[in-house]
Each structure stands twice: as structure tokens, then as C-alpha cells.
């Protein structure tokens, strides 16, 4: 068998993008969620509304931002508003359809840790922390999580619960997990083309349940791959450029 | 109150003293790097540093021993990874122990808003079931709505002794204009007992639209004109965020010795921000 012409990261991004319906209001985290949201906007969902927590509403970036508040977001946004209003009037008031999160650890229900590995008071690894995640998970109508899979990060017991979450889907680099309607436990519902379910089970730290009818996710289309790769190439070039400031004196 | 126009050195020496609670705000955009680095040059100690996102500027201040305490909501290098100096302080108490008062972004926004409004605390829907509500009991409480009985989360107001902002412009009277992403800068400014602002330029008259974010001069204690003062973050309309520098910082700050050598050469070894910009190759 020949190796697929795409990487697991690309497949994960494409699979996440496909779940975003046109016209939805999406609260976007940095990194993979941002790549997926912009890929969706550049393919099947041109009217997707992207809100970044920095206060940019309706951002339409041509390159992916490195930070959540790059100038590219402000300059392409419908409006730029104070950050407290993003969290109160948009998120808490219930104006966000989809929240899109990642984390360092996840448990079988979709609760997330992005705060510490080890005890909180004396962590072995101090992670960045909560940011916008807890309130995104609490107030968005629907939550999607994207995370690369490993038995080390898909855990029985979180070291710390940063974000209690009940995602409608967890997209990994191997497949898609969805909650059991009765227990809310995340179960493997589909694998990516060419991935064996045994590999997904092996890369999960809890005894993974598999849906009765396991689906297969279609590989990236030529269009999806080309648009994603162009976007990432433009982004790499843009971020590599050093800034020079013209001083007046 | 009349706004004083000072050099950055004098503005920091006059208004920021050891042991104070200080907020250098600006969300990714307009981060007052020059002011923070001047506080490092002046070897300020025992500060309680407040910022939603500590970013590289508090990584530097914590690593150089300026802080005893940190109030924050997201402590990473955006899009890159860890703040290694912040991690070293929390994980290994280097160069000194650092106490933390940690929140979510929504929580920090509420705390600043309460401070800006003269209220003792702010409320939000959130924190339920989070580890922060368990670990940070001193600063997180539950309160019942007096009208419906609904449980809400209460967080104490933040009222910094000094808030420092960077802005694009000030006029000769001391009115200050910010454009672009403002984060919680307005709330941090209005919550403070003293507001010091560094600006890209001082102009005759601000060209501000009617609903612009203008801080009136009588709220501004001091202004220092510092071109490039937000570098390596950015000032919309003046220069972009140096994303390549943010990526390079990951290596610079990874080890104590590389970090100290870099700070020695580029911050302690320069007299002001212009020299700093030349020293790191960011000036034209």
C-alpha cells in the first residue's frame, strides 16, 4: 500500500472544517481550530462568522494569525470591540453557535486540562492555563474539540479540570469520537481512511468504546488540500518576516 | 490633574515603586514592552504583576526577579508554546517564588470591569466545576442572584496601583487615542489609581472618530513618547507584530543562562528603548 498523499494533521484539519456549517457563528481558538475555521470559510462555508477572543468579530484573515490578536485579524474584521464585550454580550448572552477548543489532556467525557501536569500547587509541567476555554465550553451552543491522540493525553483521570466540557465531537488525527446519547461518554464513531480501529484504541488511555456502525471519513479532496496548503505556505512566509521599525530620531 | 510629559525613565521611576500592584495591559496588541523593560533596568522588586496574558514582557520581568506575585488568565507564548521563565518560576521557584492568582479570560475581564466601575466585585456565569474554583478559593466565590436565586460566580475587583498602557497617539494636552484590538485596556485604565501611557507619537490634534477609544487627559497621570514602545508586539498603523521574534524567544528563554545573557546584552546593556531596538536589529 502506498502512503497517503496527506498528513494526519491535514486530515484532522479537513475533518474539523467539514463540521462547520455555513453561516454559523464560531468562537475560534488559535492553532488547529483557527486553521480549520479558515479552511471552512475558504471552501464550503464562505459566510462562517469567526470571532476571536481578542475582540475581532467577523474576521476574514488571508494568512493564519500566530497570536489571537494579530493585526491581520483586526484589519479584516467586521468590527473590533473591547474584550469584555466578547465574553459578556456575545458569549455569555448566547450569541455563539460553535466553540472550538484544544487542550493538553482530555477524559472520556470531553473534560479538558490545559493548566498543569501534576498537582496544582507544585506542578511538574505548568501549562498556559484557561484563557477563554471554560466560558466557551459553558456558553457556546455546541463545542468541538480537536486534539492529536496519544494514550498519554487521552487519560482516565485529568490532572486538573480546566474546562468542564461535553463536546458534540472530538476530532483526532486518527478519527472522530462522538458522545453516547445515554451516557455522554465519547465513543469512536468514525476512522480516517486507512486507519485501523485497533490503532485508535491503542492511542487512547481509557478503554475506548466503538460505535456499532463505525464510519469512515473520506480523504481530503484535491481542493481541500490545495487550499489548506496554500494557506499554510502563505502563513509561514508571513510569520518568517522580521519587523523593522522606522524611528523618527 | 495635569498630565506630565516625562521621559520613560522618569515616568517609571516616579510612578512605579517596589511592592506595588501593576498592570501592563494590551491584549497581544499595544503591549507596553518598553515600559516593562525600563522597570527591569531600574531593578523594581516585589511587584504584583497583573495581565490577562503575561506574554513575553512578564516572562522577562518574572525571569529578572521583578515579581513576587502574578494575576493572570493565560500564560503561554501565543501560537508558539511555553513561557519558559514563567514556568521556571512556578515549577522551580527561580529566580524566586511566585504566588499566582489565576482566572479565565472572562473572569479577568469581569474583575477589571468591577474595578473600573467602583464595585467591590464582579459577577459572571462560569467557573462551575472548574479546578480554578477549587484551587483559588481566596478569589472565587458563589453568590445567589437576589431576584431569582440563580447561582453566579463572584470575583473581587482589580484596582491596580498603576496601569501602564501603550497607545498610538497623545495630543499636547495629554488626551490618548488607542486604535485596533484593545482587549481589556479601557477597564484596566479606568480601574487604576494611576495611569501612565507610552505613545508612538505626540501630535497637535488627535484625528479621532466620534466613538473612538480616547482616554481624557485628566485621567492620565503621565505620558512618555516611546516610538516602537510595543515592540515585539505591535501598534496598528505603525508596525506589525514581530511573529519571527516571538518564535525566536522560545529558544532564547529556554535556559536560564541564555536568557540572562540575552537580557544582559539587550536590556540591561542598553540605556533606553531606542538602543534596545537597534541592539536586537529591529530599528531601520
Please summarize the sheet with the most strands of chain B.
10 strands, mixed
Mean pLDDT of chain A: 95
Principal-axis shape of chain A equals globular
Element pattern of chain B in H and E: EHEHEHEEEHEHEHEEEEHEEEHHH
Largest sheet of chain A: 10 strands, mixed
Number of strand elements of chain A: 14
Task: Describe this protein's structure.
The complex is a heterodimer of chains A (249) and B (284). Chain A has 7 helices and 14 strands. With 249 residues, chain A is an alpha/beta fold. The N and C termini of chain A lie far apart (64 Å). In chain A, helix 1 packs across helix 2. A 10-stranded mixed sheet of chain A has the order 4-3-2-1-5-10-11-12-13-14, sandwiched between helices. A two-stranded antiparallel sheet of chain A has the order 6-7. Chain A has a two-stranded antiparallel sheet with strand order 8-9. In chain A, strand 12 (175-179) and strand 13 form a beta hairpin. The model of chain A has no long low-confidence stretch (mean pLDDT 95). With 284 residues, chain B is α/β, with parallel strands linked by helices. Chain B is built from 10 helices and 15 strands. Chain B has helices spanning 8-15, 33-41, 55-63, 84-92, 105-117, 131-135, 185-191, 243-252, 256-268, 273-279; strands at 4-5, 21-24, 47-50, 67-72, 76-77, 81-82, 99-102, 121-124, 141-144, 151-156, 162-171, 176-178, 194-203, 213-215, 222-225. In chain B, helix 3 (55-63) crosses helix 4 and helix 5 (105-117) crosses helix 7 (185-191). The longest helix of chain B is centred in the middle third of the chain and has 13 residues, at 105-117.
Amino acid at each position: 500500500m502506498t502512503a497517503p498523499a496527506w498528513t494526519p494533521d491535514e486530515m484532522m484539519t479537513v475533518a474539523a472544517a467539514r463540521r462547520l456549517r455555513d453561516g454559523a457563528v464560531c468562537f475560534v481558538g488559535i492553532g488547529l481550530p483557527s486553521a480549520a475555521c479558515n479552511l471552512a470559510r475558504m471552501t464550503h462555508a464562505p459566510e462562517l462568522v469567526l470571532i476571536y477572543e481578542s475582540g475581532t468579530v467577523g474576521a476574514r484573515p488571508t494568512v493564519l494569525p500566530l497570536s489571537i490578536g494579530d493585526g491581520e485579524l483586526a484589519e479584516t474584521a467586521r468590527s473590533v470591540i473591547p474584550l469584555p464585550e466578547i465574553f459578556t454580550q456575545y458569549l455569555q448572552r448566547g450569541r455563539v453557535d460553535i466553540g472550538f477548543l484544544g487542550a493538553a489532556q482530555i477524559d472520556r467525557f470531553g473534560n479538558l486540562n490545559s493548566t498543569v501536569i501534576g498537582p496544582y500547587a507544585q506542578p511538574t509541567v505548568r501549562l498556559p492555563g484557561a484563557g477563554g476555554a471554560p466560558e466557551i465550553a459553558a456558553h457556546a451552543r455546541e463545542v468541538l474539540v480537536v486534539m492529536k491522540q496519544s494514550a498519554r493525553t487521552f487519560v482516565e483521570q485529568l490532572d486538573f479540570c480546566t474546562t468542564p466540557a461535553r463536546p458534540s465531537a472530538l476530532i483526532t488525527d486518527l478519527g472522530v469520537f462522538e458522545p453516547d446519547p445515554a451516557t455522554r461518554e465519547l465513543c469512536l464513531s468514525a476512522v480516517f481512511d486507512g486507519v485501523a480501529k485497533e490503532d485508535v484504541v491503542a492511542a487512547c488511555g481509557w478503554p475506548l468504546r466503538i460505535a456499532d456502525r463505525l464510519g469512515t471519513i473520506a480523504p481530503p479532496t484535491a481542493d481541500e488540500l490545495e487550499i489548506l496548503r496554500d494557506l499554510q505556505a502563505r502563513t509561514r512566509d508571513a510569520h518568517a518576516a522580521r519587523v523593522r521599525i522606522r524611528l523618527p530620531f | 490633574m495635569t498630565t506630565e510629559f516625562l521621559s520613560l525613565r522618569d515616568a517609571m521611576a516616579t510612578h512605579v515603586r517596589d511592592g506595588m500592584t501593576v498592570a501592563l495591559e494590551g491584549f497581544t496588541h499595544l503591549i507596553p514592552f518598553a515600559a516593562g523593560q525600563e522597570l527591569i533596568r531600574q531593578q523594581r522588586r516585589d511587584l504584583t504583576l497583573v495581565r490577562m496574558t503575561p506574554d513575553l514582557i512578564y516572562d522577562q520581568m518574572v525571569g529578572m526577579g521583578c515579581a513576587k506575585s502574578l494575576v493572570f488568565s493565560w500564560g503561554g507564548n501565543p501560537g508558539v508554546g511555553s513561557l519558559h521563565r514563567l514556568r521556571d518560576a512556578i515549577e522551580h521557584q527561580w529566580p524566586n517564588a511566585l504566588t499566582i492568582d489565576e482566572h479565565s479570560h472572562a473572569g479577568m475581564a469581569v474583575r477589571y470591569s468591577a474595578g473600573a466601575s467602583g464595585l467591590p466585585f464582579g459577577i459572571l456565569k462560569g467557573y462551575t466545576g472548574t479546578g480554578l474554583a477549587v484551587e483559588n478559593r481566596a478569589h472565587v466565590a458563589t453568590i445567589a442572584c437576589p431576584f431569582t436565586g440563580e447561582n453566579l460566580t463572584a470575583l473581587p475587583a482589580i484596582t491596580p496601583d498603576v496601569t501602564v498602557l501603550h497607545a498610538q497617539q497623545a495630543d499636547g494636552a495629554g488626551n490618548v487615542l488607542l486604535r485596533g484590538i484593545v482587549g481589556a485596556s479601557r477597564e484596566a485604565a479606568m480601574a487604576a489609581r494611576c495611569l501612565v501611557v507610552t505613545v508612538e507619537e505626540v501630535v497637535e490634534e488627535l484625528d479621532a472618530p466620534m466613538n473612538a477609544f480616547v482616554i481624557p487627559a485628566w485621567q492620565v497621570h503621565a505620558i512618555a513618547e516611546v516610538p516602537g514602545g510595543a515592540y515585539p508586539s505591535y501598534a496598528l498603523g505603525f508596525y506589525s507584530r514581530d511573529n519571527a521574534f516571538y518564535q525566536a524567544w522560545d529558544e532564547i528563554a529556554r535556559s536560564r543562562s541564555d536568557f540572562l545573557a540575552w537580557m544582559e546584552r539587550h536590556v540591561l546593556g542598553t540605556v533606553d528603548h531606542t538602543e534596545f531596538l537597534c541592539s536586537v536589529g529591529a530599528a531601520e
